[in-house]
Specification:
The chain has 430 residues and is an alpha+beta fold. It has twelve helices and 19 strands. It has a six-stranded mixed β-sheet, with helices on both faces. Strands 1, 13, 14, 17 and 18 form a five-stranded antiparallel β-sheet that branches. The longest helix has 20 residues, at 410-429. Keywords: Hydrolase, Protease, Serine protease, Signal. This is S41 family peptidase. Belongs to the peptidase S41A family. Residues 1-33 form the signal peptide.
Length: 430
């Protein structure tokens, strides 16, 4: 059993008596009396003990020791950067479920901007995307709970729940004078992260909505399926509004198009956070002309793929500037069944570019036409907007349906036109 640090009437002196043995275990044995930079600050520990006691004695409601200590640990991590967090048992399990690709919820990726809970991107084919939630929508209330005092993880927990139950989100959208309310029905968000189809004979479309443990295998399967219908003269890889996910899945997707060279490398303080990932010779589509679509909702693992293909000159990156999340989070289980999500490294593209708070610049900038002009591309939430961000260091469609879709999706139409032009140039060079 873990000893309690203090009862209701504990004094700072008593707390210090209990905390100091723990502190002293971490102190080096100095050869001289000069304090080391690694020494624990005893005065700060004493201040912590005093704050702890005053909350216990004077706060309007009684708070137990365990809650106070967990709140302290949450605060310690949340002040580091927007992506580090303390995870209780339920949160730890929830994170595991989301990386495996199945959980109950509404399907939105959220972050914190200017102290407000903000939509980064809705996930494809989920209640949130079908209802019309948009990037940069500010979530004011979840059901009857104001979000201004919720941590990011607490807000995520409130939005998740049993499939079939309803949830009400009060949203403030830029350019509108009054909030609007969305009533959504939770579903099992069983996100098959890969979708594919032929846009025209010889021209494929591959949509990756997020990076899960099985995404690499799904991409290879989709490429094989499209190639059964004939040789591919070009492929659109759509990473728009992809919030990222598992690092190894991003490596596997990039590897599907590269037969050699570096994909990504990471740098951190500890030796085990410094990794390098290179392409293997077994490649699903090494020669297919490629256009990669990105936008302000393309983040993290999506930026790894886009950056690798851009630096390796394997494809043309088209769209608008990406989100700019260039950090790697490690999930660390704790002995009590809980865990930490801790930022341990920054990642870099093969050319040595750090994406953190900068993003990927497309080779060809194409906004979304009518829709993006109306929304304003500058309204997208990016990593640099998040509080505490680290600084830089499917079924076949008919021709009519496809034609309508290409007219509605200006970026996709331009990507297809570019692939056709590349194909013509390639044939002339032969």
């Amino acid at each position: 059993m873990h000893p309690r640090l203090a009862g209701p009437a504990a004094s700072p002196r008593r707390l210090m008596a209990m905390l100091l043995p723990v502190a002293l275990l971490a102190l080096p044995l100095p050869a001289a009396a000069t304090p080391s930079a690694n020494d624990l600050p005893v005065e700060d520990i004493q201040t912590f003990a005093e704050v702890f006691e005053r909350i216990k004695r004077a706060y309007v409601e009684e708070v137990d020791d365990s809650t106070l200590l967990r709140n302290a640990m949450r605060g310690m991590l949340s002040e580091l950067d927007p992506h580090s967090a303390y995870l209780d048992r339920e949160e730890f399990q929830s994170l595991h479920e989301s990386t495996e690709g199945e959980f109950g919820g509404v399907g939105i990726e959220v972050g914190t901007q200017d102290g407000q809970l903000t939509v980064i991107t809705p996930i494809d084919d989920t209640p949130a995307s079908r209802a019309g939630l948009q990037s940069r929508d500010v979530i004011l209330r979840i059901d009857d709970t104001p979000t201004d005092r919720l941590s990011l993880q607490e807000a995520v927990n409130l939005m998740r729940g049993d499939p079939g139950t309803e949830i009400s989100l009060t949203i403030m959208r830029q350019g509108e004078e009054a909030p609007r309310t969305f009533t959504l029905t939770r579903e099992v968000i069983r996100t098959e992260s890969v979708r594919s189809e032929l846009l025209e004979p010889g021209y494929g479309y591959l949509r990756v909505s997020q990076f899960q443990t099985r995404t690499g295998d799904q991409v290879r399967s989709a490429l094989t399926s499209m190639e059964r219908e004939g040789a591919l003269n070009g492929l659109v890889l759509d990473l728009r509004n992809n919030p990222g996910g598992v690092l190894q899945a991003a490596v596997a997707v990039a590897d599907a198009f590269l037969d050699s060279g570096l994909i990504v490398y990471t740098e951190g303080r500890l030796p085990d956070t410094e990794m390098r990932f290179s392409a293997s010779t077994e490649t699903a589509a090494p020669d297919v002309p490629l256009v990669v679509l990105i936008n302000g909702g393309s983040a993290s693992a999506a930026e790894i793929v886009a950056g690798a293909l851009q630096d390796q000159r394997r494809g043309v990156v088209m769209g608008t500037e990406s989100f700019g999340k260039g950090s790697v989070q490690q999930i660390m289980p704790l002995g009590n069944g809980e865990g930490l999500k801790l930022t341990t490294a920054l990642y870099f593209t093969p050319g040595g570019r750090s994406i953190q708070a900068q993003g990927i610049e497309p080779d060809v900038q194409v906004v979304r036409g009518r829709l993006e002009v109306a929304e304003g591309s500058e309204l997208r939430v990016r990593e640099a907007d998040l509080e505490g961000h680290l600084r830089s260091r499917g079924e076949p469609r008919t021709r009519g349906e496809l034609g309508e879709r290409l007219r509605e999706d200006y970026q996709l139409g331009e990507a297809l036109n570019l692939l056709k032009a590349l194909n013509v140039l390639s044939q002339r060079e032969r």
